[in-house]
Amino acid sequence: MRALLVGAVAFAVMEPITALTHRCVMHGVGISLHRSHHRHAHQGMIGRREANDAYPVMFAGVVMLALAIGFNVSGFAVLVPVGVGVTMYGVCYALVHDVYTHRRVPLFGAGRTVPGLERLAAAHRLHHSGNAAPYGMLVPIARGSRPSHRPVES
Length: 154
Known about the structure:
This protein has 154 residues and is mostly helical.
């Protein structure tokens, strides 16, 4: 039961960590990689890679290292449920961001929308239109603005 709680907390804590990382790293010192996403995110990315794809690879590497330590180093077993929670957040993020919002994997038809996911996609369009908040994905927060509900374009 403790492991489930730890995993759920890790999942929940990932949204503010993701928003902070997106704002400070991807729109800060790491903008050279992330710029590709803002430039090409809506231009039929199915099957294509962009420099920004290095970020999830790096993040997955950190989680795999934490899991390896959790499984193999005495006293660090808590890293296993943390790693599972972070991985589950990453799966949800990828499904919302890459599969639904940017249609990088063709699971949804071009004009097909899912109401709960469309709200998140609209918030992400707001981010793309101004290179500003919201930086989070699953609980996007943007002050003073309401995302539109138009199809993903730019």
